[in-house]
């Protein structure tokens, strides 16, 4: 009798199923387009392709609460479609928040990105204000996720979400970030 490999349960009606269906549909459409040209779709090693696709998802890390989940460098450059150098330049300029682990790796909190891979309004400016003052990524992440009376008991991130990143909410977060970054540097 053949040994069966345990598979995770299929979760009907979930976002995972919708994603798998969308990928399956996209692959079928691409195969049909190539077939019309007399070509064949070669997926190569399916496991390697799946790994590249999964790189676009945040990874699990022990520091995930409340700042995570995080992207690692390989996953984020794959998802954003940019080079490592371009990502590191964004970190250096303070337009992307990176947190350095004790073993020297960089992690990027997923909370800063929209579904399209753009750093959310207000967060980018706040990160920049702190980075220009030499603040550590973990400290900036803590500032972004710690509830404050300045934000009516919300964290800066939650305040932006609650107010749908309105111009007033962005201005309030950025003003507070600039003031706090200056105070931390004093």
Account of the protein in words:
It is a single chain. With 186 residues, this protein is mainly alpha-helical. It has two domains: 12-42; 54-185, no CATH class. The chain has helices at 15-36, 46-54, 73-80, 84-93, 123-132, 137-145, 156-162, 167-185; strands at residues 70-72, 99-100, 106-109. It is elongated, with a radius of gyration of 21 Å.
What is the gist of this entry?
By secondary structure, the protein is mainly alpha-helical. Helix content is 51%, strand content 5%.
Q: What is the element layout, followed by pairings?
A:
Elements: H1 15-36, H2 46-54, E1 70-72, H3 73-80, H4 84-93, E2 99-100, E3 106-109, H5 123-132, H6 137-145, H7 156-162, H8 167-185
Antiparallel strand pairs: 1-3, 2-3
Helix pairs in contact: 5-8
List keywords for this structure.
about 190 residues; mainly alpha; 3-stranded antiparallel sheet; 8 helices; 3 strands; disordered N terminus
- The averaged pLDDT comes out at 87
- Give the N-to-C terminal Cα separation: 72 Å
Radius of gyration: 21 Å
User: How would you sum up the global shape?
Assistant: elongated
Number of extended strands? 3
- Please tally the helical runs, counting DSSP H or I stretches of 4 or more residues: 8
Poorly predicted residue ranges: 1-9
> Order of helices and strands, N to C?
HHEHHEEHHHH
Question: Helix/strand-derived class?
Answer: mainly alpha
In what range is the share of β-strand residues?
A: under 5%
What is the number of domains? 2
Main pleated-sheet profile: 3 strands, antiparallel
